[in-house]
Specification:
The complex is a heterodimer of chains A (about 220) and B (about 150). Chain A is elongated. Chain A has about 220 residues and is α/β, with parallel strands linked by helices. Chain A has helices spanning about 10-20, 30-40, 55-60, 75-85, 105-110, 120-130, 210-215; strands at about 1-5, 25-30, 45-50, 65-70, 95-100, 115, 135-140, 145-150, 175-180, 185, 200-205. Chain A has two domains: about 1-120, Rossmann fold, CATH 3.40.50.720; about 130-215, Regulator of K+ conductance, C-terminal domain (Alpha-Beta Plaits), CATH 3.30.70.1450. In chain A, strands 3-2-1-4-5-6 form a six-stranded parallel sheet, with helices on both faces. A five-stranded antiparallel sheet of chain A has the order 7-8-11-9-10, covered by helices on one side. In chain B, α4 links the parallel β4 and β5. The chains are: A alpha/beta (about 220), B alpha/beta (about 150).
């Protein structure tokens, strides 16, 4: 994919590092020193200038790119950049990062494809990691009571020698997948759960905490 | 006090940005008996408001729609985006015109090259450099005619 990354300091650097291997990246940054730093570090085309100006974006030759990611500190700038990209440069997908969480819905109605509020995401993530230990990822299915949870099994988990069929799991709980040493195992009743395995579990929301306790502490609550 | 101000207002004008343009406009609109609210992030900017100004000032970010809502943008008949930043003005104009359907939205833009998303019947663009060029042409034309005589 062809991706344009506009403004941003460390987040731009990080994004470029993770995307540059499989994509064509072009960078536009208004900070001259940082633009130079990114060009030297990543050996990719970098344009220095105010990205809110159409001629600067055109100079970066990003017309018809697949994605533009706007990481400027100013929400209004991000909107302007995404709107120019969409209307004038024919970029299919635009992503804006916003400071004010209220701008998430607003910017979508003004035509930005995806809007990310770091404040909103960070607060949600902080709430999650402070309440749930060892939980890597949890995904709620919209409008239902179902959670898909990713759990790392504790190395001293006490139930590791019991086959799944004898494991007295709460009803409606499915261990969908066991990830062991990077490979995937679809479990059956005779499968075992070892310490350090990663499990993907489908369950009702109310049993989520019980399952986390079971696999991370080995105690059945 | 705030509620009282808004309760009886039928001709509310919101001016975003107490720039020189915004401040002078605020004085002018007050003289014409509009009820004016001026919003600016920097309270020192309100020093620029002229003596004729008799409206309210609000210290806040006018590009935040909760600030606009607090200032009763739903009742507002004219909204003027007059901050120093083109992108901020463009955002305020879009919120006023597209979200709150303010009947008359004026937006000051220094660069009018990328305003395709501001093309809506209730948005009017004011560009200082365009106005300067027009004024120059006018004055120059007068001088030419005088010379010819």
């Amino acid at each position: 994919m062809k991706i344009a990354i506009v403004d941003g300091i460390s987040e731009a650097d990080f994004l470029i590092s993770s995307l540059k291997d499989n994509n064509k990246i072009s960078v536009i940054n208004r900070n001259e020193e940082y633009a130079q730093f990114l060009a030297d570090k990543h050996s990719i085309p970098v344009t220095h200038g105010d990205p809110c100006k159409e001629y600067i974006l055109r100079a970066a030759e990003i017309v018809n790119f697949d994605v533009l990611i706007s990481l400027s500190e100013n929400d209004a700038d991000n909107l302007a950049i995404c709107q120019i990209a969409k209307d004038k440069l024919n970029i299919k997908k635009t992503v804006a990062v916003v400071e004010n969480p209220r701008n998430v819905d607003l910017f979508k109605t003004f035509g930005v494809t995806e809007v990310i509020s770091s404040a909103y995401l960070a607060s949600r993530q902080i709430a999650k990691i402070s309440t749930l230990e060892n939980l890597i990822n949890s995904f709620s299915i919209e409008k239902s009571n179902i959670e898909i949870t990713e759990i790392d099994v504790a190395s001293d988990c006490k139930i590791s020698n019991i086959p799944l069929s004898e494991m007295k799991l709460p009803s409606q709980v499915i261990i969908a997948c066991i990830i062991r040493n990077g490979s995937m195992i679809v479990p059956n009743g005779r499968s075992f759960v070892n310490g350090n395995d990663r499990l993907i579990i489908v369950s009702p929301s109310e049993t989520q905490n019980l399952l986390i306790n079971l696999f991370t502490k080995g105690s059945v609550a | 006090m705030f509620d009282n101000f808004f309760r009886k207002k039928k001709n509310l004008v919101i001016i975003a940005g107490a720039s020189r343009f915004g401040s002078r406009l605020a004085g002018l609109m007050c003289e014409q008996e509009f009820d004016v609210v001026v919003i600016d992030k920097n309270i020192n900017s309100f020093c620029k408001l002229p003596d004729s100004f008799s409206g309210l000032t609000f210290d806040g970010d006018a590009s935040d729609n909760s600030v606009l809502e607090l200032n009763n943008i739903k009742q507002c008949i004219i909204c003027i985006a007059a901050t120093d930043s083109d992108t901020t003005n463009s955002l305020i104009a879009q919120i006023a015109a597209k979200v709150y359907n303010v009947p008359n939205v004026y937006v000051r833009l220094n660069d009018t090259s990328n305003n395709s998303f501001l093309q809506k019947s209730n948005i009017h663009i004011i560009c200082p450099s365009d106005l300067c060029v027009k004024e120059f042409e006018k004055q120059y034309a007068v001088k030419e005619t005088e010379a010819a005589l």
